[in-house]
Structures are given as structure tokens and as C-alpha cells.
Amino acid sequence: MRNEIAEFIRYLKVERNASPHTVEAYERDLDQFARFMEEKVRPDITIHEISHINIRNYLAALHSQQMKSTIGRKLASVRSLFRFLLRRGFIAKNPAELVSTPKKEKKLPYHLDIDEALSLIDAPKNPDILALRDKAILETLYSSGLRVSELTGLNIGDINFEGGMLKVLGKGGKERIVPVGSYAVKAIKSYLEKRNEQGFNAPLFLNARGGRITRRSIGRVVEHYMTYLTTMKKVSPHTLRHTFATHLLEGGADLRGIQEMLGHASISTTQKYTHVTIDKLLEVYDKAHPKAKG
Hints:
56% of the residues lie in helices and 4% in strands. By secondary structure, the chain is mainly alpha-helical. The chain has helices at residues 2-14, 20-41, 52-63, 68-87, 114-121, 129-144, 148-152, 182-195, 215-226, 237-250, 255-262, 267-270, 272-288; strands spanning 159-160, 165-169, 175-179. The longest helix has 22 residues, at 20-41.
């Protein structure tokens, strides 16, 4: 079976012009697959003799060592090999078709608690323009739950200061209106007054050189102010989006309303936050109810 794998790798390099990184990943995965077949089934096993049972046994052996997402990727490599061999007439049937992809672990969205979120937002203390900008960025992320790309795309004219609303251009070019809290509005006003620019189409947040701020810069802002906190949690701008949604749900907000504010196309995407809230409820129950524990 080594010859067939070598032919597939040649196809990736020459005909598909795959990147060196992609080719290396396939080579690594398929070498591991071949070694398993040679060691656990038979040293001289041919590609034609491999069954879906053999492939399932291979995945089962990986289960104790690898995450499900990694196992799924390794299975995808094996499937690609057999699809190639079937198209080229090397084999008469594809045994990998009968093997289902393992379900990925459902990761709960990571979020800050209320004290951590407020400490992060209050971290910018200096009266200079960059600290005022950073304060406004953190307030807006936590107040409105925006994606970073949505935040960088905001112009001054997208804010309704009187009504406390933002006009946001989300995924797929879909426009939506989201609330922005009074603390965020105040922080934005303080920043713009210092900047002394009120152009309707001007970017809301600028970098140190005067251009529209980038996603990477916003990530650095969040990372910088997290160092002021005692927590060792690793936080990204997207963490504040998760925090926004979780705190709203814990405060009794309607799931449909949160869906609209986050700009999720499907309610199932928003429902992941209910798991966090249920965990919180169980924690409170275990601590407070006299019959919670035997």
C-alpha cells in the first residue's frame, strides 16, 4: 500500500499543486495509517484488502490519544486517498465510505465573569487619546457584542448617540441595528472629543498612525489590558462577545433577542450560550439547596 500512498502524494504535489504544508500533513497522516495496518493487521497487507472494519479499528486506536477533531482530520486524509484510488481504477470500492466521522466535542463559549469584565473595561486609566480609544473599544465590545470585523468597520456616522444604537455591517453584508450602552456612548464621545474629528464617514476607531484600526490591533488592545488583571485567563476580543451574550442570558434576556443582537443567522448558534447558563444554575443549586447533595 506504500506505492499507492506515494502515487497519491505525487498527485497532490504535481496535479493539485497543493501547498507544502498540506502535502506534509497528508504524508504524516497516511504514514501513520499505513504503519497501523502493517503492525496491527499484516505486514504485507495490500490496499485492496483494507476493509471498513480495519479503518474503524484504526480510529478506535486513536481515540485514547487524539481529540475528535484530529481523528476527523486523519479520517479525511484516508478518505481522500481511497477516493483518489477509486477514480484512478486502483481499487473497485471505497471502504472509507462506510466509516462515519466522529462527532466533534462541543466547546462551551468561554467568557469572563462580571467582575473580570468590569475590571478589564476599567483598566485604561490614562487621559491620552490612545487610552481613551482603548476604553471606548472595550466598552463597545462588551456593551454590544460585536464581532471584531464589525467593530473595525464602524464609521462615526454609524452611531446614534441620542438613541444609543449602532448600525453594524455583519456577515454576508447584512446590516443590523444593535443597542450600545450609555457607558460605551460616553467613552466614545470622550475619545472623539479628544480626537477632534466628527466626519460622518470617518472611521470610528483609528490606529496610532491615523488609519482605520485593524483586527490585529484590537486583539493587542485586549491582550494588553488583560495583563492588568490578576486572572490567568487567556482572553481575545471574541471573548467579550461571548461574555456579552452570557451575561444577557443570565440577566433574563430572551434568546431570540440575543440572536438578533449577535447577528446569528440561526437560533441554534445562539443556543450554545444556554449551556453556560445551565452550568451556572446547577452550580448555584449545588451550593444553595439543602437537598442538592446527599
